[in-house]
Structure formats: structure tokens, C-alpha cells
Amino acid sequence: MKIGVLALQGAVAEHIRSIELAGAEGVAIKRVEQLEEIEGLIIPGGESTTIGKLMRKYDFMDAIREFSSHGKPIFGTCAGLIVLAERIDGQEEAHLELMDMTVTRNAFGRQRESFETDLTIKGIEEPVRAVFIRAPLIQSVGEQVDVLCEYKGEIVTARQGHLLASSFHPELTDDYRLHSYFVKMVEEAAK
Ligand code: GLN
């Protein structure tokens, strides 16, 4: 099972490592043609405006929407979550507009810009270690979206069918269970 990590900017190598710990093969995706080789895609953290610009420059927008239209799973982490969202608070334009949710960028105030915590995520038995770095939160979700985790009353993980999004960086710890969860989504979709 090959899972790609969009390699335009951000934490790519760490995601590939976590995908491999979860038992799948990780591939860095730099060109749209490579989307044909993979069954699932991770859009990593970094800076969403930069990732969005590079996605437009290298023709990834329509190619990833097409990938999604075949039910192939996509997992956005941190900036990747922002890239997946239909609406970004305070911005006219969003990016892929695939997940029915409104997100707020840099939502955890200054003192809490970066922090780690343990989160209880629906579908994963024990709490997961989560690293937040200038993280976004999910302000509101549409009916199709299942909230998987909240932190202090704010939504930080959600799923809409074959789409998964987390505010935090699951790839920066040795805890790869959210990647295992995604690998399972990819296996089920590929059946
Ligand atoms: N603050 C970044 C943004 O708005 C996201 C930060 C991250 O991915 N760690 O794009």
C-alpha cells in the first residue's frame, strides 16, 4: 500500500517515517503524475499560504480534487487541515475546499503557540500524544463531518468520509496510531 506525502513544503520526512511505522510505504510527491502511483495522500504541516501557492504553481489543485473524487483518502495535518477546508476564517479564498468546515488559523494564543498534550481520539483506544505548532482549530463543521477529537472545547480532529484532518502534528512523536488509523482508511477505500 503506497501513501504519498505532498512534498512542496513542510514536514515530509517525518510523515514518511510514521507511514512506514504504520506498515505502509511512504512516497514523497513532487509532481502531479505521481498521484497515480498512490492510494492515499497526506498534506503536511508547514505554512498553508505557501503550500497553497506552490500547489497552484505545480497544478496540484485540480489533480488532488480529482484524486479525492475517486474516494481516495486524504489526511491534512495542521497547515494541511487548512488546505482541505472549504472556509478559512477572515480570508476570502480557501484552497482545496474539500472538507465542509470553517477553520481558524493560528488559533491558540501566543503563550500556547506551541505545546504538547495527550488527546482522546474517537476510534483510537488510548490517548494520543499531540504536538501543536501555531495550530489552527476547526470552528464549525457541516453535517457530513464527524468530530473525532476536541481539546478544551475546540475541534482539533475531524473526518468526512475519506477525508481526515488534525490541527496538530501526529508525525513529530513516536506515536503513529493516527497514521495507522489513516492507513486503515486507505486500505478500506482500496477494497
Ligand atoms: N500557522 C500555519 C498556517 O496557518 C500552520 C502551522 C503548522 O502547520 N504547524 O498555515
Automatic annotation (TrEMBL):
Source organism, top-level taxon: Bacteria
Alphabetical list of InterPro entries matching this protein: Class_I_gatase-like (IPR029062), PdxT/SNO (IPR002161), PdxT/SNO_CS (IPR021196)
UniProt-listed Gene3D superfamilies: 3.40.50.880
Binding site for L-glutamine: G46, E47, S48, R105, I133, R134
Record-linked PROSITE patterns: GATASE_TYPE_1, PDXT_SNO_1, PDXT_SNO_2
Keyword Lyase: yes
Catalyzed reactions per annotation: aldehydo-D-ribose 5-phosphate + D-glyceraldehyde 3-phosphate + L-glutamine = pyridoxal 5'-phosphate + L-glutamate + phosphate + 3 H2O + H(+); L-glutamine + H2O = L-glutamate + NH4(+)
Subunit structure, as described in the record: In the presence of PdxS, forms a dodecamer of heterodimers. Only shows activity in the heterodimer.
Functional note: Catalyzes the hydrolysis of glutamine to glutamate and ammonia as part of the biosynthesis of pyridoxal 5'-phosphate. The resulting ammonia molecule is channeled to the active site of PdxS.
Name of this protein: Pyridoxal 5'-phosphate synthase subunit PdxT
Organismal lineage: Bacteria, Bacillati, Bacillota, Bacilli, Bacillales
